[in-house]
Amino acid sequence: TPVALMISGRGSNATALVRAAADPAFPARICLVLSNNPQAPGLEMARAAGLPTLAIDHRPFGKDRAAHEQALHAALTEAGAQAVCLAGYMRLLTPFLTQAWAGRMLNIHPSLLPSFPGLHTHERALDAGVRVHGCTVHLVTEGMDEGPILGQAAVPVLADDTADLLSARVLEQEHLLYPRALRHFLTRQPASASTASALLVA
Ligand code: GRF
């Protein structure tokens, strides 16, 4: 299945997906790595892996988010993508793009949703005093970090944790979870939202 990745920066989750997809037995073929940030290090990684890349900078579009998303959508469609994985794509999407890709767009979020949607999840988890933290792969809907959960992985919060330590512990799990959740999604495409919520605990 042709799958496009959307990134904004580092691209470590994109790297994990690219590596997984290098295995012929993996059900996704990465057909495009698309970024809103032309300087995203993840684009370099993708080029080095010989994958098609494209940067569509949001800045020239100014406040016209619709026009930027139409350009993204056209690029995804032209690449033949049948699903999209957001992997550190740091711009909020409007209903135009989420509806165009409804049921076919995945995101990874660094918390055990529905706890801590949004930014600074590791700091907030530490502030809240939770003992268990983690990451979630979910389908993208209009509400930020709100769609049906496809998989989660949990890590312990340790006594002397800092946000950096916790973030690194979660990130390691993200890199395992995302390929696993994508494989599951592509091979056991659920008929309904209720069967979409298979829990994957790494
Ligand atoms: C990850 O923590 C991901 O969960 C979040 O943004 C970060 C992206 O990191 N959505 P990377 O670009 O994949 O390294």
UniProtKB/TrEMBL annotation:
<feature type="binding site">
    <location>
        <begin position="90"/>
        <end position="93"/>
    </location>
    <ligand>
        <name>(6R)-10-formyltetrahydrofolate</name>
    </ligand>
</feature>
<dbReference type="InterPro" id="IPR036477">
    <property type="entry name" value="Formyl_transf_N_sf"/>
</dbReference>
<comment type="function">
    <text>Catalyzes the transfer of a formyl group from 10-formyltetrahydrofolate to 5-phospho-ribosyl-glycinamide (GAR), producing 5-phospho-ribosyl-N-formylglycinamide (FGAR) and tetrahydrofolate.</text>
</comment>
<keyword id="KW-0808">Transferase</keyword>
<feature type="binding site">
    <location>
        <position position="107"/>
    </location>
    <ligand>
        <name>(6R)-10-formyltetrahydrofolate</name>
    </ligand>
</feature>
<dbReference type="InterPro" id="IPR004607">
    <property type="entry name" value="GART"/>
</dbReference>
<keyword id="KW-0658">Purine biosynthesis</keyword>
<feature type="binding site">
    <location>
        <begin position="11"/>
        <end position="13"/>
    </location>
    <ligand>
        <name>N(1)-(5-phospho-beta-D-ribosyl)glycinamide</name>
    </ligand>
</feature>
<comment type="similarity">
    <text>Belongs to the GART family.</text>
</comment>
<comment type="pathway">
    <text>Purine metabolism; IMP biosynthesis via de novo pathway; N(2)-formyl-N(1)-(5-phospho-D-ribosyl)glycinamide from N(1)-(5-phospho-D-ribosyl)glycinamide (10-formyl THF route): step 1/1.</text>
</comment>
<dbReference type="InterPro" id="IPR002376">
    <property type="entry name" value="Formyl_transf_N"/>
</dbReference>
<dbReference type="InterPro" id="IPR001555">
    <property type="entry name" value="GART_AS"/>
</dbReference>
<dbReference type="GO" id="GO:0006189">
    <property type="term" value="P:'de novo' IMP biosynthetic process"/>
</dbReference>
<dbReference type="GO" id="GO:0005829">
    <property type="term" value="C:cytosol"/>
</dbReference>
<dbReference type="Pfam" id="PF00551">
    <property type="entry name" value="Formyl_trans_N"/>
</dbReference>
<feature type="binding site">
    <location>
        <position position="65"/>
    </location>
    <ligand>
        <name>(6R)-10-formyltetrahydrofolate</name>
    </ligand>
</feature>
<feature type="active site" description="Proton donor">
    <location>
        <position position="109"/>
    </location>
</feature>
<feature type="site" description="Raises pKa of active site His">
    <location>
        <position position="145"/>
    </location>
</feature>
<protein>
    <recommendedName>
        <fullName>Phosphoribosylglycinamide formyltransferase</fullName>
        <ecNumber>2.1.2.2</ecNumber>
    </recommendedName>
</protein>
<dbReference type="GO" id="GO:0004644">
    <property type="term" value="F:phosphoribosylglycinamide formyltransferase activity"/>
</dbReference>
<feature type="domain" description="Formyl transferase N-terminal">
    <location>
        <begin position="3"/>
        <end position="182"/>
    </location>
</feature>
